[in-house]
């Protein structure tokens, strides 16, 4: 186990204004203070995390997929979740939004316990979800994708125009059907759709998968812009270079357990972690 | 020639009645993965409740307006409080749902038999056709105007359902749900309410078909099962969740049943099933069916 418990060196990060906690929401039960979180917590001790995943256990049938995963994402922060295939990255994301039910442990979002909330309510609390296969409907037009998202989030049509400014290529293809879009366009649509609801946390599952390098750069730049607006990001990636370029912190998963939590710099300093759990030296 | 026209219209009339049933069944199956065999029960609920309303008010039109509300409400309750919780608990296998709703169909038949036959002593009932639709019109042949009314209602409902599904956001949600249910949830859509509403509308249309049939055919306890079988064939022919497929599937089944009876009675018993078997072999996803998965 190469859990990083070191304090982060100097390198002060741009402080992020914490969101005002909504009145009347009951706080989550004190989360288990996992040692793995110490490094991240020490940087901004005064800012409460936006997303708190505490010791969650998730099963597919009898198969114990997540065996006590803990992580958190602070307001404005980008956290990359890395690991090999089958490490439990996708399951962690699906557990957060209740697409796969959590058997034990807790998920908290902005002071609310959302562990067992239905998916649509979690999304409406302010989480945007971009799934692994992009989740584009083959028989719906681009406009209809955005219409559903607007309708579900109860946003005015002007919100669509705001978001489309960030995605010029999507705005040119409003009448195209999902199956007519290229992989990159589908990915952009999936991100645009998630951003329509103005989420405070954007969760993405391998947005670079199957895309040409130049499109991967485009996705990366888009996410960098999203991050600049203050939206928190939880990113699962196989493309470690892209993830490290965006992430403030990195969580490494293996066999359903967190093996490392730290900054990209700290990960660089631990080649054995990269070698063992990511397969890169 | 007039014989052919007469049978063509009869086929169209049967097709529209089957369409009113099948459209709900196919959208429910496509969207929720529930093979709702209780659809025949909602058809019966419409017919019998329509009979009760007709007896109370003497008006076909009031019966037509009110009776479908009973299956509509029952359908919402069944989906929201019984089927969906079972699905959430993992009991979503086709067989589970088919058995449960099949049981409900026979429960309904038993209940209706208990109330209307055992208690009230009624066997073959019927709703009177409304004034103005009770006679014949001359369109080259003398044809019952009420059957033309059935055809008109079927076409109108087909148009409305098509507009709802293709031109509204909720319709887009339903089509998206047929592609990838999970993603619809992950977009923040309360699928429980959408599913139950769609289920309720489908059951309401089955009830509407029941009232309409109650003035043309007789109302009896075998009517639910009788209409369910051709309806299931339509769902297979048309493909899941497709209005277009359901419409053409209904035409094929209705026409085949009627025309084979008129021209080749020896074939009538199995002509529809011949088409069904051929479809299952050569194009199991149906005419307009698609593999229900996002790209």
CATH C-level name of the domain at 35-137 and 202-278 in chain A:
Alpha Beta
User: What does the radius of gyration of chain A come to?
Assistant: 18 Å
- Envelope shape of chain B: globular
Look up the CATH topology of chain B.
Answer: ABC transporter involved in vitamin B12 uptake, BtuC
Oligomer: heterodimer
Terminal Cα separation of chain B, in Å? 50 Å
List segments of chain A where confidence is low: pLDDT < 50 over at least 5 consecutive residues.
Answer: 1-44
- Which sequence of strands runs across the widest sheet of chain A? 6-7-8-3-9-10
Question: Biggest β-sheet of chain B: count, sense, barrel?
Answer: 2 strands, antiparallel
Count the beta strands of chain B: 2
Strand content of chain B: under 5%
Overview of the structural elements:
The complex is a heterodimer of chains A (281) and B (295). Chain A is an alpha/beta fold and 281 residues long. Chain A is built from eleven helices and ten strands. In chain A, the strands form two sheets. Chain A has a six-stranded mixed sheet with strand order 6-7-8-3-9-10, with helices on both faces. The longest helix of chain A is centred in the last third of the chain and has 16 residues, at 213-228. The two termini of chain A are 17 Å apart. Residues 1-44 of chain A have low confidence and may be disordered. Chain B has one domain (2-282): ABC transporter involved in vitamin B12 uptake, BtuC (Orthogonal Bundle), CATH 1.10.3470. Chain B contains 13 helices and two strands; from the N terminus they run αααααββαααααααα. Chain B has helices spanning 2-32, 39-57, 60-66, 69-88, 94-119, 145-167, 169-179, 181-185, 191-214, 223-238, 243-263, 265-268, 271-282; strands spanning 136-138, 142-144.
């Amino acid at each position: 186990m190469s859990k990083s418990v070191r304090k982060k060196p100097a390198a002060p990060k741009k402080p992020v204004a914490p969101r005002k906690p909504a009145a009347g929401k009951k706080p989550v039960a004190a989360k288990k203070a996992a040692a793995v979180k110490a490094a991240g917590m020490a940087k901004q001790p005064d800012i409460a995390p936006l997303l708190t995943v505490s010791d969650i256990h998730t099963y597919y049938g009898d198969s114990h997929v997540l065996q006590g995963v803990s992580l958190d994402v602070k307001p404005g922060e980008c956290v990359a979740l890395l690991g090999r295939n089958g490490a439990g990255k996708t399951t962690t994301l699906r557990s957060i939004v209740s697409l796969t039910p959590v058997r034990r442990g807790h998920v908290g979002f902005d002071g609310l316990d959302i562990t067992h909330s239905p998916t649509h309510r979690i999304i409406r609390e302010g989480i945007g979800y971009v799934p692994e296969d992009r989740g584009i409907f083959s028989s719906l037009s681009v406009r209809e994708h955005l219409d559903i998202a607007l309708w579900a989030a109860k946003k005015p049509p002007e919100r669509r125009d705001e978001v489309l400014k960030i995605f010029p290529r999507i705005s040119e293809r409003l009448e195209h059907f999902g199956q007519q879009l290229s992989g990159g366009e589908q990915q952009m649509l999936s991100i645009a759709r998630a951003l329509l609801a103005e989420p405070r946390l954007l969760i993405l599952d391998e947005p670079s998968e199957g895309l040409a390098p130049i499109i991967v750069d485009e996705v990366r730049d888009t996410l960098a812009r999203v991050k600049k607006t203050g939206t928190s990001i939880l990113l699962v990636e196989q493309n470690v270079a892209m993830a490290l370029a965006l992430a403030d912190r990195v969580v490494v998963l293996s066999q359903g357990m967190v093996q490392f939590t730290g900054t990209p710099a700290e990960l660089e300093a631990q080649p054995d972690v990269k070698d063992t759990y990511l397969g890169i030296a | 020639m007039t014989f052919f026209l007469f049978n063509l219209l009869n086929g169209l009339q049967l097709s529209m009645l089957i369409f009113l049933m099948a459209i709900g069944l196919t959208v429910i199956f496509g969207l929720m993965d529930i093979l709702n065999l209780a659809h025949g029960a909602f058809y019966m609920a419409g017919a019998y409740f329509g009979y009760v309303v007709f007896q109370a008010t003497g008006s076909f039109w009031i019966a037509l307006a009110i009776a479908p509300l009973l299956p509509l409400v029952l359908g919402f309750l069944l989906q929201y409080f019984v089927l969906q919780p079972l699905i959430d608990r993992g009991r979503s296998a086709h067989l589970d749902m088919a058995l449960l709703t099949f049981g409900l169909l026979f429960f309904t038949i038993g209940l209706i038999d208990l109330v209307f036959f055992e208690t009230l002593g009624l066997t073959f009932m019927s709703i009177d056709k409304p004034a103005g639709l009770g006679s014949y019109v001359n369109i080259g042949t003398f044809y019952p105007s009420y059957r033309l009314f059935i055809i008109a209602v079927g076409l109108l409902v087909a148009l409305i359902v098509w507009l709802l599904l293709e031109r509204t956001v909720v319709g887009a949600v339903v089509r998206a749900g047929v592609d990838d249910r999970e993603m619809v949830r992950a977009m923040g859509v309360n699928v429980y309410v959408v599913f139950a509403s769609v289920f309720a509308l489908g059951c309401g249309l089955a009830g509407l078909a029941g009232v309409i049939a109650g003035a043309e055919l007789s109302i009896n306890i075998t009517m639910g099962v009788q209409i369910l079988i051709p309806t299931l064939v339509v769902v297979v022919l048309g493909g899941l969740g497709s209005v277009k497929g359901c419409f053409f599937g209904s035409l094929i089944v209705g026409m085949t049943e009627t025309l084979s009876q008129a021209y080749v009675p020896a074939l009538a018993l199995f002509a529809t099933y011949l088409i069904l078997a051929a479809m299952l072999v050569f194009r199991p996803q149906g005419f307009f069916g698609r593999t229900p998965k996002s790209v």
